[in-house]
Amino acid sequence: MEFTTQHFIALAPLLITTATIIVVMLAIAWRRNHSQTFLISVAGLNLALLSILPALKVAPLAVTPLLQIDSFACLYMALILVATLACVTLAHAYLGDGGSGYPGNREELYLLILMAAAGGLVLVSAQHLAGLFIGLELLSVPVYGLVAYAFFNKRSLEAGIKYMVLSAAGSAFLLFGMALLYADSGSLSFVGIGQALAATGLPSSLAQIGLGMMLIGLAFKLSLVPFHLWTPDVYEGAPAPVAAFLATASKVAVFAVMVRLFQISPAASSGVLSDVLTIIAIASILFGNLLALTQSNLKRLLGYSSIAHFGYLLIALVASKGFAVEAIGVYLVTYVITSLGAFGVITLMSSPYNGRDADALYEYRGLFWRRPYLTAVLTVMMLSLAGIPLTAGFIGKFYIIATGVESHQWWLVGSLVLGSAIGVFYYLRVMVTLYLIEPNLRRHDAQLHWEQRAGGVMLLAIAVLAFFLGLYPQPLLTLVQQAGLAG
After folding, report:
1. Within its chain, how far is the Cα of 204 from the centroid?
2. How much is the pTM?
3. Cα(411)–Cα(417) distance, rounded to whole angstroms?
4. What distances in angstroms separate CA 210 from CA 133, 165, 178, 192, one per listed residue?
5. For 119-143, what is each residue's pLDDT tens digit?
6. Residue 348: Cβ within 10 Å count
7. What does the DSSP assignment read for 13-48?
8. Do residues 144 and 242 touch, judged by C-beta distance below 8 A?
9. What is the greatest pairwise CA distance in the chain?
């Protein structure tokens, strides 16, 4: 096939991210400098983000048989790049500079995050099973290294090994499922599979087993029940900025490709598979929320709560009627904003790196009297995660409920309401802890290094955005509607 200028414009976000990876690699080989590596990464990610605007003008465009750049892909590319940018900023604050910072090599962290982001960009624009697998592996392999990055910390190393072994098992299921699907439909492209499944009316048992095995592989990455066992340990062991990346960019990419697969081949979500998804959704919502109730570690609490949030998202995937794609877009944007804020506070509490993350709940007792700005951000994030009105999280939950009601999925809507009610309790428990008064406590705000200040400003911007979208969600709704229609 011939490449034209339009193809290069459509691929610009991916090409710029890849070029940034090469520049960062060469810069590290030439001279180790933490701030220089950080600035190159930020510049590259910002350029990639800006290049989405010209890419939108030439979309939709099938760049190769593997990749389709359309407004759906552009929305999720932007979301992944914004999340990566936030995680890189937090990583800079977390690793610190000079003697007080992280004792190992710092620069490679940026390299791994950028490589994982490139995998995410491939994943959201995949329209072919080969593209899906390449994107998923390019996303997953650097994350193994990221999770175990603080290798002298036993928990981090254990988390990295755990994630690698279980992720490899998930990938094996995914490949086996793809093979069965290819044997049945004779095609690897999403459209070809969709047409082959639609031609036979109900998918054959071979196709259903294949789709079921693919679902197991993707459910591992999204930590849906019963494939969630790695989540709390990995979230706790991973360095805080890495946990933020895992909770946002990594999961958004996998969920986006799942939506595309199910939208292009509607037969995929009919029959037995639809019932399986319903059971997984209800189990994820209830188990995620109930297990979060017992946690005294903030990272583990957020890990279990993320299981519940992806259970909520499955409701729209099962419904897959009306404005389901729109609802998924709105929810993912609000979830990413909120998760970045929550993990951002843990990062700034833990930085510059001092051996272990400040993730135990008792360390946040009376935080309002020590770090009022961080307390304000974490309070807004907890309210948003709980889906309280006037926050971004409320808009996301409202859309998911509306989708469930529209398609008469009453069991799913009931489990969402019950799960949210349980969630309010443990989110409020975190908030109350922040405002408790410790004896002999004098109010002061800790002195921050400049890299922490950059992270702090970003967190305040995230908190303002969460409030703004809760009060005036129209710009977000317009954006997602355009992506949903063309996608």
Report:
1. 33
2. 0.92
3. 10
4. 15, 22, 6, 15
5. 999 999 998 999 999 999 999 999 9
6. 25
7. HHHHHHHHHHHHHHHHHH---HHHHHHHHHHHHHHH
8. no
9. 74
